[in-house]
Amino acid sequence: MKWKLKPNEVISYKAYIKDISPKGAKKMAFGEMFKGAGGDSTNKEGSAMQQMMEQMQSLAPEYYIASLTENKKDLIDIELNAKKGQKKPVDSAQAGFALLMNAMESAPMLRGAIGEDGSIKSFYLKNDQKNVLALFFQLPARPVKIGDEWHIETQFTNMDQSFKCDSSFHKNVVKVTNIENIGGDKVVTLAYDIVEYASGVFSFPFAPPGMGDKKGVNTLYKTVYKATARFSVEKGKWLSYEGEMQTTITGIMESETTQRYALAP
Predict the structure, then answer these.
(1) Helix residue spans in 107-151 (DSSP H)
(2) Stronger pLDDT, 46 or 126, i.e. the higher one
(3) CA separation (Å) from 194 to 70, 135, 155, 159?
(4) Does 146 fall in a domain?
(5) Sign of the CA dihedral 51, 101, 241, 76?
């Protein structure tokens, strides 16, 4: 499995990173610490935060354009740009967000590089950008057969010294589930199975207001990613890619979201 591009050729995809959370899901809410200090999604401050998140999400691009170009041998440049098209606010409260989103369309949301074998060359990217690059474009960098497995360079959970872990689990597997001969082309089907789980206590150097002597909050982060993709060996590109990411956060903040990750040629 290798990416195949002619000099200065551009391969483009519609890249979907879209919130598809069911109605009523907590996309972002105050957690225990903020509630103890008087913050709540039902009061004025909490309600304003919820509305701000909903306004930003409603103005997010329908999809991004992913462009792959090989300007140097074995170095494929990748850019993700928001779909062009002015965001129209439905009321005055959305006007500022609309201006921001329209301005963001003029610059790439991601710029990175991979090798022809799908290995990541832009090791220096931030985790959130590197995650997208790995999920969509990283390949095994070696010959594979049905049943072969490998991992990709993703990390969805980021904690610091304030977090004391009680339990954790990490699974990162991409597996070849099928290889078909279709019209002289080998089509490889891959299944992605990634799970990250960390549970523990997020501690503070002092007790936050409204929490008495309590200096820690029970915290949980969990991400589950499943995807199925089909790669053309002859053409050297994806024929289809469809994935879903479910994220659950409890503790300081509370969130329960589902996102669609997909590529369409």
Answers:
(1) 127-137
(2) 126
(3) 29, 10, 10, 18
(4) yes
(5) negative
Q: Is 4 domain-assigned?
A: no
Full residue range of the structural domain in which residue 86 is found: 10-264
Nearest to 137 by CA among 158, 121, 148: 121
Report which secondary-structure segment, H or E, holds 81: strand 75-82
User: Token pair of 208, please?
Assistant: 């936050």
Contact (CB, 8 A) for 16 and 4: no
Query: Per-residue pLDDT tens for 124-180?
Result: 999 999 999 999 999 998 999 999 999 999 999 999 999 999 999 999 999 999 999
Tell me if 152 sits within 8 A of 172, measured CB to CB: yes
SS (H, E, C) 153-201: CCCCCCCCCCEEEEEEEEEEEEEEEEEEEECCEEEEEEEEEEEEEEEEE
| Predicted structure pTM score | 0.84
